[in-house]
Amino acid sequence: MPEYTLRIRRFDPQSGEAAYWDEHRVELGERNSVLDAILKIRDDVDGSVGIRCSCQQAICGSCGVRMNGKPGLACNTHLQAAADRGHGAGWDPPEEGQYNSVITVEPMGNMPVIRDLIVDMDQVHWKKIQRVTPWLINKQPVPEREYIVPHENMVDVTQTMACIQCGACVSDCLSMEIDPLFIGPAALAKAYRFVGDPRDADHFERLKDLSEDEHGIYDCTHCFNCIDACPKDVAPMSQIMRLRRKAGSDHEIKDRNNGYRHEHAFVSNVRKNGLLHEADLLPDSYGGKFHPRAVPELLSSLPTAATAMVRGKMTLGKVLTHPHKASKAVKQIFDSIDGQEQRVELNLYVTGYEDEPEPDQNAGPADKSPTFPGPDEGPEAPSESEHR
Amino acid sequence: MKVAYWPGCVSRGFTPELHGSMAKIAPLLDIELIELDRAACCGAGVIAEHNQELADTLNARTFALAQQTDGEMMMNICSTCQGAQSECQERLDANAEYRESINRHLSDESLRYDKGLTNKNFLWLLVEEIGLDALKAKVKRPLTDLKVGPFYGCYIVRPVERLGVDEEHPRDLYLHMVIEALGGTVIDYAGVYKCCGFPIITMNKQASLGMAGRHLGDALDAEADCLVVPCPLCHLNLDLQQPAAAKVVGRELGMPVLHLPQLVGLALGLSPKELGMSKHVVRPTSVVDWSASVVAGTAA
């Protein structure tokens, strides 16, 4: 049986002592889980190792930790798979023919540590979940009997419903690392659960709230960490993009964070130029060169622009005009697709990879689902956007 | 080898030195570039966020143009293009019906995307097609004693499945491997796989520059001489915006940031000036000093 070395980060904030690494060797199969190893250490060697766990079946979501630098559930991560992760091991590749058998186990990030591998989910994760009003606000009048929801609408939100609230995505969210007030991937994915549900009455209010909050949907930096972190393929970042799509395109919410303006400036910039003309994008993202909100921003960017000109990175000609113009064909693509009433969206979580010989096991209920267009309809009701 | 070459927008806009240095090193690596000059912006994830079908169509068009050339594969020099295009390609390749519907938008130009294009960032092509041994053999001026911090950013390493990062293709270690092959020293620091912050620069400037400043500071603390990036957007936040980022994090930075083709070009014997390093906002003094002393050493 292979032997693994677990380096567990130990810390008790009450003790006044600094955190330290505790090393234990365990003999277990490579397909035993990291949780198996931690529990074995706790049973056989040191009963004081703190870890939260319950079902050991990747359902309860309690055993989120970082293993060799990557977040996940200790109960559904095989020991060898954890050892093989390059990131946490750093740039110290094992010799040819050797393989890594050291696994560092740390508490999840972005949340305070209660003890050892146990983090305070209440302080961060659950607070943020509460922030997005995580319950259905019924459309009135509520039917007397069951509320029948079209199948495709429920399929649309199944991906966010797969969330088990383990906090792995929160742990490694790079926006939250720098801006702890960011609502974050788990809570925003939860928000899509209701924005995508036709029974909910508050789609517009929810989207307006999440767009206007300076730590809301436009604070996500597209880093994909949450997509890789999630043990249930919820792809929180994709849900955030869908919230943006609904807020910006369906409800045309012109938020104060420039999210709407940036997106629309980008799209019309490429429609016009074919290639992006950065010199126009910046002012347009703030509403145009002479928009009151653009002026201070542009003034503050002047030193940067001046240096870039001195270095020959930008030239005045390049700033004022763009040598490239979009061809008629490219413009035609923009006009015919962007002008369509119904947006086409292909969600591979729902449809699966039909051309693949063996569909991914986690790809969801592929056989029962529609192909496309997806259930992501256009504006729900024109009256909603009139609320503004 | 011959490749259909997609330089992207920023490498011909605010980071012209990237496109320029790629053009300089390509012949030295026996790469023939067939530039896709009719292709449009990949959308950088923003067009997809606005309308997925639109982004998929624009990129299917680029792929179709690439398939019309006699290049062995398509190559890009921008991680953001790689990430955005891989995302669109994943959908196009996964569903024949969807692919056909997208192809219908291209029929006016008699273009058509057929499933299964290979589209590699220059970093991947360097390691997987040219190979580290062949690269080593071409090194004229090894980066001896140059301490280089790899900065991968996001789009080229995540999500791992879509970007094909696996045991056989440890693409999340390729920058490390290239730095070593060129004779340099790899500096590990906290920011290696983090986000430069660029995507939110117009939405949350403080957070965006805070990210850039933190990673640059971490690299400085780890005593890196310079960083190397495979993405021109990372370069904008790490180099062009570095003075502003320094103000946000309240410390002096002065960390030179090189584009990957520039680092390769230095080792292949080109001068910093030829590689457009005078266009950087942060003067790559440490790198130029190093290259000057190495040249002097060789001459003596």
Q: Tell me the radius of gyration of chain A.
A: 25 Å
Q: What structural class should be given to the helix and strand makeup of chain A?
A: alpha+beta
- How much is the average pLDDT of chain B? 95
User: Largest sheet of chain A, described in full?
Assistant: 5 strands, mixed
pLDDT below 50 for ≥5 consecutive residues: which ranges of chain A? 359-371, 373-388
Largest sheet of chain B: 4 strands, parallel
- Percent of residues in β-strands of chain B: 5-15%
Lateral arrangement of strands in the main beta sheet of chain B: 2-1-3-4
Query: Overall mean pLDDT score of chain A?
Result: 87
Number of strands of chain B: 8
Identify the overall geometry of chain B.
Answer: globular
What secondary-structure arrangement, pairings included, does this model have?
The complex is a heterodimer of chains A (388) and B (300).
Chain A: E1 3-10, E2 20-27, H1 34-44, E3 64-67, E4 70-73, H2 79-84, H3 86-89, E5 102-106, E6 113-115, E7 118-119, H4 122-131, H5 151-161, H6 168-171, H7 174-178, H8 185-195, H9 203-212, H10 225-229, H11 236-250, H12 259-273, H13 278-285, H14 294-310, H15 316-320, H16 328-338, H17 348-351, H18 382-385
Parallel strand pairs in A: 1-5
Antiparallel strand pairs in A: 1-2, 3-4, 3-5, 6-7
Chain B: E1 2-6, H1 16-25, E2 32-35, H2 46-50, H3 52-68, E3 73-76, H4 79-94, H5 96-106, E4 119-121, H6 122-130, H7 132-138, E5 147-150, H8 174-181, E6 185-186, H9 205-221, E7 226-229, H10 232-240, H11 242-249, E8 257-259, H12 260-267, H13 285-299
Parallel strand pairs in B: 1-2, 1-3, 3-4, 5-6, 5-7, 7-8
